[in-house]
What does this fold into?
Amino acid sequence: MAGIRVPNHPAGMTGLFEPLNESIPKAVRGNMYGNITTPSYLQCAGAYNTKLKDFDLTLITKTALNNVLELERSYYLSGKLIALNDGSTPVFTYTQDLVAPAGPTSNSPLSFTNKATVDSLGIVVSREEVLAPGDTGESKLFSGAQVILGRVLKVM
It folds into this structure.
């Protein structure tokens, strides 16, 4: 029997994003509307910010070709995230009407770590009590979920 591929479903997502490079408008010659592609990333840190990792992400919207995301600005975006099972960069298709500029990133850098909300189908793969760092003795119960971001990750 061939290997079973994990199904991928689009996930509703909102969060703060910063463009890594200039937006690239793509359209048929002569059109004023088309797809705008922008490279970005998603910052994750795990429980108590102990597993810092950035994941590449491609932001895409269909709009007028002059509606690009500016560099050195952060944006609050809402849309759909899909990660294919082929190892390619996950794609976040956002709704242009819901773009909210959050301000310049050079003056007062915002912490983007663990600042995204994802609503999707998923499988709970484990539950684990995690102790807080230090001598407080505080603990929290975390459910591990499988998230597909170009590869299967275990988020705790």
